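Why does residue order matter? Because the sequence determines the fold. Keep that principle in mind as you read this record.
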Amino acid sequence: MNPVNLFDLASQQARWLSVRQSTVASNVANVNTPGFRAGDVEPFEQVLDKSRVAMATTHPTHISLGSTKDQFAVREVADNGAAKLPSDNTVVLEDEMLKAGQIGSSFQLNTSIVKAFHRMILMAARS
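Structure:
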């Protein structure tokens, strides 16, 4: 059985949130590392823009279109012109904590949407 599109989208967002969470954790862990450059993951909207809907091959003789899994690009955060630290580090701890809060909220929203959709499917199946 093929996955329902909403479940696939939610799992893709959960993977993206995991990558973003590990990037933020790396930034926080290296807050005192001299010369460390803070990173962030490309916005999820850009990931969706790059995604393409591909036809599924349901038989081994079907031609595969070579669709690949999306990779989430971790990029260096642009210097925001804040006060230069003596260590030449670009991590702003307050920004990283805000990002961590946003990630937690996004995980909760993602889980709530999946639960609601799952309940809806179960109700439809019981009818």
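The longest strand covers residues 39-41.
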